[in-house]
Amino acid sequence: MASLPSIVVGNTIKLDRFKKHTPSSLSLENRNFNTKEFVKALDPFHLDFREALSLIQEGNTKVESSFYIPLLQECIEKNSVSDVQALHALVIKRGSYQDLFLMTFLVNVYAKCGTMESARKVFDNLPKRNVVTWTSLMSGYVHNSQPLLAITVFKEMMEVGGYPTNYTLGIVLNACSSLCDIELGKHIHGYIIKYGIEYDASIGNALCSFYSKCGSLDMALKAFCRTREKNVISWTAVISACGDNGHSAMGLDMFVEMLSEGVEPNEFTLTSVLSLCCIIQALGLGTQVHSLSIKLGYGTQIPVTNSIMYLYLKSGCISEAKKLFDGMNTISLVTWNAMIAGHAQMMDLGQDGLSTHFSGIEALKIFQRMKRSGMKPDLYTFSSVLTVCSNLVALEQGEQVHAQTIKTGFLSDVVVGTALVNMYNKCGSIGRASKAFIEMSTRTLISWTSMITAFAQHGLSQQALQLFEDMRFIGVRPNKITFVGVLSACSQAGMVDEALAYFNLMKNEYKINPVMDHFACLIDMFVRLGQIEQAFDFIKKMEFMPSEFIWSILIAGCRSHGKLELGFYAAEQLLDLKPKDTETYFLLLNMYLSASRWKDVSRVRKMMKDEKIGKLKDWSWISIRNKVFSFKPENRLNQEGEVAKLLEDLQEKARVLGYQLQANLEVVDEEEETTLLPAHHSEKLAVAFGLLNTSNGGQIWA
DNA sequence: CTAGGGTTAG
User: Which residue did the predictor score with more confidence, A217 or A659?
Assistant: First the structure.
């Protein structure tokens, strides 16, 4: 402390001494000084926070109010409320509380430390306020997710005759976006026009993101176009607006336009653009943006690297992603989450069941590594991991994660809760799925939809429809996916009238245009009721080309109900859609064979020869105690004899129970001298193998 | 002193 008194001259801490050590631009009288540099300037005097504080506390010296600023700044960085309180007490004791500038900053500091009650108290005790004081309080409420209070403060300010600046209006617009208060937002837009500051960049940017968040891309684009001096932020805002409203490709076009206008992107722009590349799987462009990021010096920015890594994972470039991951200096929570979510996404990307399985296992391994590294999982982690567990049908792991969400308190999150419902449903436990649903404290449309679909999938149509009515009753608006669940519930139960009523409700009351899945439900229903003609009528009524799935439903119906002609037609249609599909060729061939239509048989055979259609590539796999066994029809097995015997036994039992094996399943192709195995035969092998190798009563999930 | 932009989820 020996060196400290030298800067205390008379009764005032002399700040002049600092100036000698600092650049000339750093004038302490200028209140726009860079606080960080100021704090650095304190270094030669070894004045760290504690020393400075005790210096003020010990003496009876009068302290220039600007002396507090860097100290308060440090409190924000350390997020230390108690230090703010100590300084606040000193400010009052030493009489600086009349300094409006300092007190406004104090409002800010309390707000940034998340203590709005204190910020409000400071504000309320002020004898005078200016726009900045009002604005600071409002900004505090917005950043502490109390947008409603921010708006109240704004109204108070307007009542006492305050005059908002562009900063103020920007903050209010922000509050409107998080409340989705379109009315007030438009009202504010009115002020903006009145004040003639519509063309101001800061206002234009705020308007752009306001309209974007309220779902009006048109208005967001207009706000952007009206902005006179567009800066990086304007471009970033409009690019994100495109992405947030489902126009990722347009966003990328805007990015190209931005570059041609000579505006240099920053790390925010780059991350935004990369996330758009991710959505539309534009790996090529993404790679270019990656090199651009490195060129501009943002190559090591964590958010930039995270989004590039996620893009690579989503595109299936595991080694590229891994390289980035291994090269990162700091691995943030988001990095881990992106890594896990990326592998979860790759499960959908997988070409076959096996690679899907491995992506899932890898995701769980990364989750373990993350926990070992000491990183605490959050709601993003848990929902991804639960999704992985559902895709893997890994009930045990799912249960463990469930326990962890309880312990960490993340179970109360809607998304985690919904993921849990899906996990239990996928693992075959509808009871626990509905228990998880009931225990949720809040539910989104997606939660309701998941539960409705789960009931429908388990054939519990009544429960599904009851839940749908409950959902409507409390005022949640269903979307098209909800209706897929509802229609499939009706379809399962063969409730034709209800199905048609809900179909009309969807179109007329909710103005939702039916998509392929809705028709598939209805067609499936008619087919299963044996009303093949009605099913075909519905297909003809659709405004779009029937999907492969729809034709296969119809084919199955035609086969079991002996509608051969329509069946042949449907199969030929399916072949049109999937010209090289082995399974479809065999299906059609089998159908003609069983109808003894030899002309068609040889025609299809010739087509198959021309298309070089070979053997069925159908194979299955099963995971037993974390080991994967794969089965191909032609494979030799260790337990071949046992498996064959078990299958025979099962077939015998099934026959006794009245199940008739479809005669046309096994067909011998004399020409090729290969046995055509029935579809999913390998699946039978896998299940039989599973039965032999799991303890009695163990369950096998398909 | 007050603003406007970003990564991970169902």
Answer: A217
pLDDT digits (tens, 9 = 90+) for A516-534: 999 999 999 999 999 999 9
Angle of the A81-93 helix axis to the A100-112 helix axis, nearest 10:
160
The closest nt to A383, taking CA to C1', is B9
Query: Protein A18 CA to nucleic acid B5 C1', in Å?
Result: 36
Q: Using the C1' atom of nucleotide B1, identify the protein residue whose alpha carbon is closest.
A: A105
Could you give the number of structural domains in chain A?
A: 3
Contacts of A631 (CB under 8 A, 6+ apart): A619, A620, A621, A622, A637, A682, A683, A685, A686, A689
User: Which of A306, A330, A354 delimits the end of a domain?
Assistant: A330
Cα dist. A106→A47, A110, A138 in Å?
A: 21, 6, 14
Query: Parallel, antiparallel, or unpaired for β A12-13 and A8-9?
Result: antiparallel
- Count of positions (residues) in chain A: 702
Q: Are residues A599 and A644 in the same domain?
A: no
Nucleotide B2 C1' to residue A77 CA (A):
18
Q: Residue A298: which H helix or E strand, with range?
A: none
Domain for residue A588, yes or no?
yes
Do A688 and A641 have their domain in common? yes
The secondary structure of A554-608 as a DSSP string is HHHHHHHTT-HHHHHHHHHHHHHHSTT-HHHHHHHHHHHHHTT-HHHHHHHHHHH
Of A580, A610, A640, the domain-final residue: A610
Q: Is residue A543 over pLDDT 90?
A: no
CA of A388 to C1' of B8 (A): 15
- A174-231 pLDDT, tens digit per residue, is 999 999 899 999 999 998 999 899 999 999 999 999 999 999 999 999 999 999 999 9
Residue A664 and residue A633 share a domain: yes
Question: Is residue A234 located within the same domain as residue A266?
Answer: yes
Same-domain status, A633 and A601: no
- Nearest nt by C1' to A132 Cα: B2
CATH number at residue A315: 1.25.40
Does residue A681 contact residue A632 with C-beta atoms inside 8 Å?
no
Residue A218 located in a structural domain: no
Question: What confidence score (pLDDT) does residue A594 get?
Answer: 80
Tell me, yes or no, whether A577 lies in a domain. Answer: yes
Domain range for A253 = 230-330
User: Do A246 and A320 sit in the same domain of this protein?
Assistant: yes
Q: Does pLDDT of A366 surpass 70?
A: yes
Closest nucleotide C1' to the C-alpha of A307:
B7
- For residue A271 the two structure tokens come to 């991350």
Token duo for residue A545: 């080309």
DSSP lists the bridge partners of residue A238 as none
Do A573 and A641 lie in one domain? The reply is no
CA A32 to C1' B10, whole Å: 46
Lookup: nucleotide whose C1' is closest to A416 CA: B10
What's the CA A206/C1' B3 distance, rounded, in angstroms? 8
If asked whether residues A561 and A593 sit together in one domain, one would say: yes
Q: Which of A389, A393, A342 is nearest to A364 (CA)?
A: A389
Q: Which two tokens stand for residue A347?
A: 């499960």
A576-CA/B6-C1' distance, Å = 45
pLDDT of residue A93: 85
Q: Which residue is nearest to nucleotide B3 (CA to C1')?
A: A167
Task: Please tell me the distance from the alpha carbon of residue A443 to that of residue A147, in angstroms, as a whole number.
Answer: 22
Confirm whether A679 is domain-assigned: yes
**Backbone angles phi and psi of A627, in degrees to 5:** -115, 140
CB-based burial label for A487 (10 Å; 0-12, 13-18, 19+): buried
* Three-state SS at A62: strand
pLDDT at residue A623 above 80? Answer: no
Q: Which nucleotide is nearest to A133 (CA to C1')?
A: B2
Whose CA is nearest the C1' atom of nucleotide B10? A415
